[in-house]
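Pipeline run #58 for the internal structure catalog. This entry was flagged by the ingest filter as a single-chain record with no existing model, so it goes straight to prediction. Upstream metadata was stripped on purpose; only the residue string is passed forward. Reviewer on rotation: M.T. Logging verbosity set to normal.
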Amino acid sequence: MKKVFNYIKSTPLNPIWLIVIFTLIGGLILCLFQDDDKAMEHFLTCVGIGISAAIVQSSLIQQRIQKDNIKIQLFDKRYKIFQTVLDSITLIKRDNWDRYILFSENDISKQVIYIEEELYKSVQLSVCLFDKKMHAKLVSVNNAFCKVAKSYKDMLVANIKNFESHEEVQEFLILLKSHLLSESGLGSKEYEENIRERFPKTYITLIDFSKECDAYLALINKCDIVKDFGKYIIVDKLEK
């Protein structure tokens, strides 16, 4: 019986059908008791009940639609925050991007600023969208990425100062290209040693930035925030 009630509750009847059903019932009564003086009164009463039931049903359907819309909006907002965290991880894990894009035309700086802004917004919105534990995790993630963004900006400024001439920039780019084309690649010990010996100041800024990136990824893994998001963006649990 409970299953039947839940099924009826989850699949509301069309209000028009309610009017039709009660009208047919009234018509049946009118046919069966046509000699009764009150037959027409009973018929009209059935029609009135059908209209009233249709109005109530329309109200219930409207409430359900509003609840579904709230769930969808809640899902969208939570998923956007989840996507921002994923974007930050993807940006940092990009293979050696911090090494070979320093003097190239690219949109990395715009992405860093964008993610920094989106994480800040996420922290403010998380007060309404998540529980206190999740909010605290987002605060920690935001603070850690702010350090990454600051280190990135400091790295760019430091390298502008470190390379005093166009020739030094070209020399650095030649070194990058040579290792990009080699089998060892940019992550090799040979590359590390070449940078450290030939461009010691640049090497220091890269190491500092790399440490902040590693600290950010370590925090992500430690707080397990990506897994926690899975509990919040399941459609069936959005009302929780």
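catalog note: Residues 98-105 have pLDDT under 50 and may be disordered.
catalog note: The radius of gyration is 33 Å.
status: ready for reviewer M.T.
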